[in-house]
Amino acid sequence: MKLRHQLVTLSLGLSLLLILILGSLLALFIRHLLESNLQDKGSDLARVMAADTRVVEALRQGSDPTLRDYVEAVCNRTDATYMVVTDEHGRRLSHPNPELVGQKFRGEDLWPALQERRSYCSKDRGTMGPAIRCFSPVVGGDGRVMGAVVVGYLMQQVEGIYMERVALLISAIVAVLGCGLLLALWVQYLLRKTLLDLEPEAIVRRFTLQDLVLEQIAEGVIALDGRGNIAMINSTAIYQLRLPATGRHALQGQALAELVPPLAPCLEQEGGEVSFTIQGESFVGRWQAVQGKAPGRLLIFSRPEVATSLGVQVTHLRQYAEMLRMQSHEFANKLSSLSGLLQLGHVDQAVELIQQENEACQIMLQELLRLIDNKPVA
Fold this sequence. Notes:
Elements lengths: L2 H48 L2 H9 L5 H10 L5 E6 L4 E3 L16 H5 L4 E7 L2 E11 L5 E10 H40 L5 H17 L3 E5 L5 E4 L1 H6 L7 H4 L4 H4 L4 H4 L4 E7 L2 E10 L5 E7 L1 H41 L2 H25 L7
Antiparallel strand pairs: 1-2, 1-5, 3-4, 4-5, 6-7, 6-10, 8-9, 9-10
């Protein structure tokens, strides 16, 4: 897998893991906040109903046929699922189901409100199902507990509200993942454009080969950026220009004109051949333009005698190649003659030709051994 693909996969994986962790924590926080808000609202509503004169009067009288309709009307104006009013013995005076009015309240969580005069909320199962139930005692003028008001929110209703909030959370998570994917693709594009679609191993290999090739060049090579600072230099150039032996990487970014003042006139030339002298030694070179986003120039120089020596070597190599070509041609002619004699069936003449060539070679070897006393040289 390529580096950019690894980065995209890693970034998306980390983003997904982080979002899942934060999303789970946020979902738990939403659930806790939702239940806490419902408990606060239920407690406030239960305390308000416990202080309602209609409820207090009904509990003082022991019954009120119109209390159920009154409580249900109040409940319909709120988001509570139900409201129940009980007396001090736990007998219902009001309930959403008329058939349950007059019966005992279901659940042991009622008694702390009646016995301890506490307002609180709990989770329990009632006649309508599991619910969050908030209790508040109804206290008379003499300080005696006359009954209690219960405000309930069915867990089914809580789950519905919770799933709506979770759906919004999931939508936000999907949107964040989409933005993360787009960002990862943009980073991948930038990496591909910057690294020229090369992997780090290939880049390292190219730089290593570049350093090896650069150090093996017999000529001095200096690459300059647009401001005349050294971008690249080989050891030959450092030695010939008498630059400080601090390493070629330490010289990068420094102005060549300041390091080698005799080169200042050459730096003013845009291209072509140049010549300069460093501590009494003459050099010749040439400028070569470097195109790209960061334009620059390349100076390749050497001593004049080195260039002359290279020219002589090239001439000798050409002469040697010509001699080998002639020898190859002559030998091919002899092989062609020998092949023709064998094809015509003139075996004796072919053998005679081979013997003549062998004798000529032996005569030459004997002559060399006779003229040269040093046998290994001969």
